Amino acid sequence: MSLPSRKQWEEVPPDPDLERDFGYDREPLTAIRTPEHTGQLILLPSEERQLEDDEFLVVDDGSVEPLSDWR
Fold first, then answer.
1. Reduced to 3 states, what is the DSSP secondary structure of residue 16?
2. With contact defined as beta carbons under 8 Å apart, do 27 and 21 qualify?
3. Tens digits of per-residue pLDDT, 45-56?
4. CB under 8 Å to 3, separation ≥6 — which residues?
5. Are 30 and 44 in contact (CB under 8 A)?
6. How many other C-beta atoms lie within 10 A of the C-beta of residue 61?
7. At 49, is the secondary structure helix, strand, or coil?
8. Do residues 57 and 50 make contact, with C-beta atoms less than 8 angstroms apart?
C-alpha cells in the first residue's frame, strides 16, 4: 500500500465519514484494560468470529501517528 499523495489528503474532508468516505463498516468493540494497569486499553471486536489475523493490527506507540500530522 502506497502513501497517499498530497492532493488525495487535501481532498479528504476534515471530519470524514468512516462508512461513506472510506467504506468502513462500524462494529461494536470490547475495551479491555491492560493487566499492568497503565491506562492502556486493548480494543477487540465484540464478536469472536471477527478475531482473524487480517482484521486488526498490533503496534507499538511509535507506529501510531495522528492523522493531522499528515495534512
1. coil
2. no
3. 877 777 776 666
4. none
5. yes
6. 6
7. helix
8. no
